[in-house]
Amino acid sequence: MSLIHNERTKLTATYLNTAAGALFGAGVVAPIAAAVFGLAGPAGHLPALTLGLGALTFLIASLALHVAARYVLKGLLL
Length: 78
Fold this sequence. Notes:
By secondary structure, this protein is an all-alpha fold. 78% of the residues lie in helices and 0% in strands. The protein is built from two helices and no strands.
């Protein structure tokens, strides 16, 4: 039974960590890269404060999911 529990726990942690990586890529890396390379969307230029606060929000959410994944892994049985 502990093997099944451990695999489910690892699967949950993997899901959370993958979501954290997706948030980081979509909310931090992509907007900053778009700003650096001048690839503005249909709205035009994005103010630096808006870009920074948005990236910071996604970074914090990504870190929170990663920490949650690490917390879930504490539930592994020996």
